[in-house]
Amino acid sequence: MDVTPLSDSSDMHAPSHCEKLFSSDFCQEFIGAFVRSAAGVIAGVKPAAVYSFKITSRCSSCVLRACPVAQYRSMMCDFAYEVELFGIKILPISPVSTRVHFLVYRADQVERIISDVQTQEFLRERGFMPSSWQRVIRDFRARLTRYHCGLSQKYPHEIGVILGYPLEDVKGFISGGRETCRGPWRAYGNVEAARVRFKRLATAEQAFRTRFSQGESLFALLQSSGDTNVSAA
């Protein structure tokens, strides 16, 4: 099993060709998983998301019928470089094997969250070094990678603060003794406000998924960040 983490796209200097984002150069199943799982981040209504993608030996939607790990690796690096042009970072948080886990985020939104004094205090109490939002991201990436590599049984639920959950809900989830499980999140503060917030988020995410399923390209979705209207069929 290849346990070398995928390169951070910021280390890459390949020329940009944004039109790749809706061409056969990228695995269409990979793009589909990205849109389904990170629709809120693409739409600009959610700061971050975590998701996984299963590498299969045969793709039904790609030009190549067999895609070894090395080719997936190259494709993922190119993809990460392209989406970063739209303000989105995608980082691997597990080895590149049969299933790869990712952290996707918008740096400007994460920076705003981490700049909050109470959030910094909470993270510091949990063993993070919130001297900068970049440092926090590196810490989360390291903890998530350790978890997915089986080096730690403890999932870093503190990540809820950058996934868009209110700080009081993240604290409530952890203090409820659920640190070692991956159960669903729940509201521990203002339940009605949480219900409205989650409904607004779900509506925006579904709008972007619908637009994609109706044939709109990822490139077009990224260009229209902030527009959560569902396009006509």
Number of domains: 1
- How helix-rich are the residues, as a percent range? 40-55%
State the major sheet. Answer: 3 strands, antiparallel
Strand content: 5-15%
What are the low-pLDDT stretches, counting only 5+ consecutive residues below 50? Answer: 1-19
N- and C-termini, Cα separation: 43 Å
Mean pLDDT: 80
Written account of the structure:
Helices cover 44% and strands 9% of the residues. It has 233 residues and is mainly alpha-helical. The protein has one domain (9-214). A hairpin with a 6-residue loop joins β2 (88-92) and β3 (99-106). The longest helix has 23 residues, at 191-213. The radius of gyration is 18 Å and the shape is globular. Residues 1-19 have low confidence and may be disordered.
Key features of this structure:
233 residues, mainly alpha, three-stranded antiparallel beta sheet, 9 helices, globular, disordered N terminus
What would a concise description of this structure say?
With 233 residues, the protein is mainly alpha-helical.
